[in-house]
Amino acid sequence: MTGFCSGKELKLPEVPVRTFRDGCYAAARAAGGAVERVFESAYPRNFHSAAIVAPNDRIAILCNAVYPWIAFAGAGAGDLESKAFVDPPAWAAAFAEIGFVVMSRQVLGSPLGSVDTAALGKAEWLQIDSWRPASVGEAVFNFWD
Length: 145
Prior knowledge:
Blueprint: H1 17-31, E1 34-39, E2 47-54, E3 57-64, E4 69-73, E5 85-86, H2 93-97, E6 101-102, H3 105-109, H4 122-131, H5 136-140
Parallel strand pairs: 4-6
Antiparallel strand pairs: 1-2, 2-3, 3-4, 4-5
């Protein structure tokens, strides 16, 4: 979930930025818009991001770098640290069609304790205990180091 693992845990493969980019272009076509930018995850950010500009709309897209999980943030999300999550637009189905899991605003805003966290590893729990994310979204899309 967080993308952290210890030396004893298997390192998970990353979601290639190219796969995310392909999803963004498919979504932009479905939205009748254009991809404004795509950024690959870079330390300490654990997610790729992009922006799509559609008629009367600009939306940020976040993709966890380890898990194929997609979230959407509001038009003012140039500061992605605020992660003002919004409901997925209708064109979010373009991501689901190529294997991504589109996360709802409701799930992202849920307290971390309200979801099954049994599969989290020791390194993830150390980070969670240190950073104390208030929601699922804060744990899944983070800037932790």
